[in-house]
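re: ur msg from earlier - yeah i can do the adenosine-5'-diphosphate complex, just paste it... oh wait u already did. ok heres what im feeding in:
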Amino acid sequence: MEWEPVVGLEVHAELRTRSKMFCGCAVVDSTVAEPNTSTCPVCLGMPGSLPVINERAVDLALLVALALGCRVEPVSVFARKNYFYPDLPKGYQISQYELPLAVEGSLRIEAGGETRPIRVRRVHLEEDTGKLSHEEKPARSLVDLNRAGVPLLEIVSEPDMHSVEEVKAYATALRRLLCYLDVNSGDMEKGVIRFEANISLRPKGTSELGTRVEVKNLNSFRALTRSMEYELDRQAAVLEKGGSIRQETLGWDENAGRTYSQRSKEEAHDYRYFPEPDLPPLEASAERIARIRAALPELPEAVRERLVSKLGLNRYDAEVILAEKETVDYFDEVIRTSGAPARAAATWLGGDLFGLLKMRSIPLMGEGGKPALPAREFGLLVKMIADGKINGPTGKMLLAEMLDTGKSADALVAERGLQQIGDADTLRAAVRAVIAENPGQVDQYRNGKTTVIQWLLGQVMKTTGGRANPQTVRRLLEEELSDPAKG
Ligand code: ADP
Ligand code: MG
Ligand code: ZN
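and the outut:
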């Protein structure tokens, strides 16, 4: 039997606000802050404390909902989701249930060489839980409530994905969208985006949904795709043997590379959802929605269109630049401040600059948004190459030196006299000299071994200290060699 994978994703993304969802505590980086220092009676769940809605979080949630083309509900309602766990001080999480903030959106993904929309079922606001860390010696678990109450957006897809590639494309596109909207740092290592994957199989060609499992707490793209591959194999094996899939909640063991059963799947009634009595319904007025819609920035699709159709980049270079919002911003600044041609700038950025950064293990944007190489300096180098002032190989060498020394291309060129020699008269002399000194290779060329020209070109580059314009040299070599009166 051939099985078709069916996957729906629930994505939890922290919203980048200054304060928490229902109290004034600062949102701190819980991978660095001293535990339990950003807490108050509200996020500690003290009896009698009352929550207040963070309007900024609502604005950011609406921004995401609109970017996903969702229908925003004029009135949504917060609800208590009751369960007991040590990272949840109140004994319930404030979430949204029957009436979420927004519904029925979609996100375009590219997979298998085609673009298609994945439907988004709902987008709702909730609060994050605290963080537990488990230690072995001594055996104990520690609770940090700095993260408790941080605004969290849950984005739930329809079960529209049918391959690992599509799931990866969706998760990547969603992360990228959140970064473009500046509502989330996209910093997966810090756990600011987490996935839950609902996975089932069905006989290929049928449309009914099979029984699904839910894999919880996937904190990286790698965990997401590996756990899915594992589950697809496991479920296919069970079904092949005539067995049936148990609907359950699974965890993912990163080290063992397998899923494990956490509990039989809870049903909604297990959570005893009810409307949060301490908060008013959330109203999203038409004016508010219009204001936020007007603030939508240029989104990835629009950037792609601009890069490809307006600036003439090839698809590959455009995708490399699009992948991260900060690369787009850097690229735009390169062009704006240096006057470098867009296509050359894109190729040098995505190819050579990224290559050098990777070799040195440094990011394009450092702490505080300071680039590894100022955009204008990079652009001026590209412009020198494009204008024929220096040749490509010299450009590559300079780029590395600029990164390492912080000097400008101009300064380095002047310091070393690296200006490209494009002047045909000067180069012709060099070409003639090389021809005169290498009669053996010249004979080979004239006897049909035309590839020798590459070697002769290399000799001219050598005698000119690498500064010759290679295209001009090649043309001159061909001219001189085809004339038997010469050499
Ligand atoms: P719950 O709230 O219990 O997790 P939902 O019915 O709201 O369940 O679905 C949650 C997610 O599971 C959604 O992303 C949905 O697309 C996905 N899903 C539902 N049924 C299936 C199925 N049979 N196979 C794969 N994914 C599914
Ligand atoms: Mg779920
Ligand atoms: Zn608080």
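cool cool. Residues 298-416 form one domain. ping me if u need the other ligands too
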